Amino acid sequence: MNFLELYKNPHLxxxxxxxxxxAPENTMDALQKSLGHCDFIExxxxxxxxxxxxxxxDDTLERxxxxxxxxxxxxxxxxxxxDFTLEELAALDYGSWFExxxxxxxxxxxxxxxxxxxxxxxxxxxxxxNMHGVFEDTQAVAKVLEMxxxxxxxxxxxxxxxxxxxxKIAKKLAPHIPTAALTEDKHxxxxxxxxxxxxxxxxxxxxxxDLSLADRxxxxxxxxxxxxxxxxxxxxxxxxxxxxxxxxDAIFSDDA
Length: 256
What we know:
alpha/beta
């Protein structure tokens, strides 16, 4: 079964950045703790200064690492991920900030993540973070695809991004890997007709949007047009059931 076939099943639960209520987000511990509690895992990927793919959400390192405890990096503010090499990132801790169970976690690479899901036959939604202006668009997408090809995991993958040009590039370079357009705050088009046409132009199979944008009309129109629908971030079982009843295919939860 591939990710598109998985999406034919109802009431899917995606572990948002891994089991991020139970473990530090986007770490191996978060991946481990999601086992048996979700239908797929969602992670964020961006490139280091030396163009290595790491699993990390924020543009900068302050919130979820101990960068402040490393005086050797004090002059490197604002501590952007893309300003550090993989070797430098490996010197940091990615778990000591986490409550109620602070503990040491190493940097997580995309390569290690893909090998993990391959071992456990899990499905993975890779969100490619917007690196436009730091790396060439094709370089950013190609690096992610290179890791997928190396690990032979394309059948387990869904690619998504808020930066939609990446999706067009991904579809050109790897047409067999399904893609999903991400949005928050508002839809990228004024009317439903324009939105459906835009999603067809992107050649995506799914549309993932913020909980605040979910309503019956939007979900109904998307589903009737043949798109899978995902909603984030949903941590209430009651709200999850409401969304599934509405016709939503998948929710993304920190509490998976």
